[in-house]
């Protein structure tokens, strides 16, 4: 059963998914950017969580315990996320929270969940969400420095020694920029340009024209759509032939659609295995789960699953495994998540610990190249 209620004052939408017979139950809170510029993140996250709650309840719940999800749309706004996390904690009395979709929103609510003692499983990638470790905060996307290192390791193989950096000025871009600059120093790579753009900018030809004149060996762009798609179009318009690397923040077909297959041709990036599972060996530890998720999502929503929806899938997997092993209170769920070891997921294989609340490494990504409108694994 799906119930949609509009809250005019907060300018948000609440999506509540439950079953009439759910007793006893665990109430899950969720904050997703279902609308707004980050909807390509939040919509598949919301869809995935709704699908999984329905599936598990139809199969008797977890050890007989049903689940209820209370999902709020933040619109990608950190201020709204802060308002809504307190609604989830104080009014809805949730036992765990999944989301938010973006790094800025996640950083904005950390103090709230830490103070309340409610486990948070963020669906955003920024390193600072979980480093330094906070008792109640976890996240499912691999850390941005892992994605950056994947790119730089490939650059080294190509003997690319200099690059231009172009990052968005939001939380995701700022975190990525810090990690990239630190890794560049470690690996002896020269940054010949350090440019930024705003999340709502619609033309980046000024920055790219400057970069073109500096003749770097490569360009690294760090952001989430629509900015990277605009940059890709601008690069094509300017006739720039320099190798282009994008962040894992655009690892969905939506990026190729927005940029256009012709402009995106040849662009490289680190992507989770979901994007390319159909070319993985069937012996890959993640293959069966990736295929199952994509099949279920297509059946439910008529379109392929995305890496971003996979972040919500993994959060749900972590919390359900925690409930099975540890119990249903916030403290028990937190402890169970922290004890997750060798847990095969959509994003990789989680190995959480008291000193690592992300639990993923370089194996979470494959380097891919856009070829004829699709992803191809770079050998």
UniProtKB/TrEMBL annotation:
Coiled coil: none annotated. It comes from the Bacteria. CDD domains: PBP1_ABC_RPA1789-like. Keywords: Amino-acid transport, Signal, Transport. Residues 1-22 form the signal peptide. InterPro entries: BCAA_transport, Leu-bd, Leu_Ile_Val-bd, Peripla_BP_I. Belongs to the leucine-binding protein family. This is Branched-chain amino acid ABC transporter, periplasmic amino acid-binding protein, putative. It comes from Geotalea daltonii (strain DSM 22248 / JCM 15807 / FRC-32). The lineage of its organism: Bacteria, Pseudomonadati, Thermodesulfobacteriota, Desulfuromonadia, Geobacterales. The gene is livK-2.
